[in-house]
Amino acid sequence: MKSLWHDEALKHVSVLGIGNVLLGDDGFGPLVVEMFHCQYECGSSVEVLDLGTPGLDIAPYLYDRDLVILIDAVHTGNVPGTLCLFPSEELMHHRRQLHMTGHDPGIQESIAHLRLAGHAPSELIVVGAEPQWCEFGEGISPSVLIAASAAIVIIAGLLKERGILCQQRATSIKPRIWWLPEGSPTPALV
After folding, report:
1. CA–CA separation, 105 vs 101, rounded Å?
2. Which end of the chain, N or C, is surrounded by fewer C-beta atoms within 10 Å?
3. How far is CA 47 from the centre of its chain?
4. Contact 5, 162 (CB under 8 A)
5. What is the pLDDT of residues 37-77, one digit of tens each?
6. How confident is the model at residue 105 (pLDDT cuts 50, 70, 90)?
């Protein structure tokens, strides 16, 4: 029996960055999806979006998806820049210990509502980075910039492991990362 991920059936996949680009490392999610989009191309069944700071309005982006990868700054108590992967069960089970920077109530509530209605994503993975700061106007910290470069490789690997078309672009697109302060180092392109 073939796995769903390796079937010819169309998969509905979302790679979603969440966070506020004006609040320092909280902009990790938008930074990663912009870098990912510029360096990788995926099949037409994969949407790569920066959702900003959603609440319960995130539900349509999770509805009946085969796979959702959420990227956000996540407070875990680790060293700033530490990357962590959390499956949806862990996100829901550890909701008091795992704090995504201000967005977790909407995400967790949306997942709970979609589960009750029978339309939750089949698989949800959070790719999080421990922030150093989430202060207005601070920009992304050097440790989170390094984590962003590593996160895009992890995301590509997660997609490929599931048989989802994802390949590095022959020529990278120049990222539009307007929110980094002038003079900030830019993330390394793979």
Report:
1. 10
2. N
3. 12
4. yes
5. 999 999 899 999 999 988 878 899 999 999 999 999 998 88
6. low
Place of tokens 């590509």: 156
The gap from C-alpha 140 to its chain's centroid, in whole angstroms, comes to 16
Q: What is the rounded distance in angstroms from the CA atom of residue 135 to the CA atom of residue 103? A: 16
Q: Give the confidence band of 101 by pLDDT, cuts at 50, 70, 90.
A: low
Fold annotation for 12-168: Rossmann fold (3.40.50)
Q: Which residue has the tokens 């003079």?
A: 183
Q: Where are the domains of the chain?
A: 12-168
Give residue for tokens 């037409």: 44
* Predicted TM-score (pTM) above 0.70: yes
Mind giving me the DSSP string for the chain? Answer: ---GGGSSSPP-EEEEEES-TTSGGGGHHHHHHHHHHHHEEE-TTEEEEEEES-SGGGHHHHTT-SEEEEEEEEE-SS-TT-EEEEEHHHHHHTTTT-EETTTHHHHHHHHHHHHHHT-S-S-EEEEEE--S---TT----HHHHHHHHHHHHHHHHHHHHTT--EEE-SSPPPP--TTSPTTPPPPPP-
Q: Report the pLDDT value the prediction gives residue 98, as an integer from 0 to 100.
A: 47
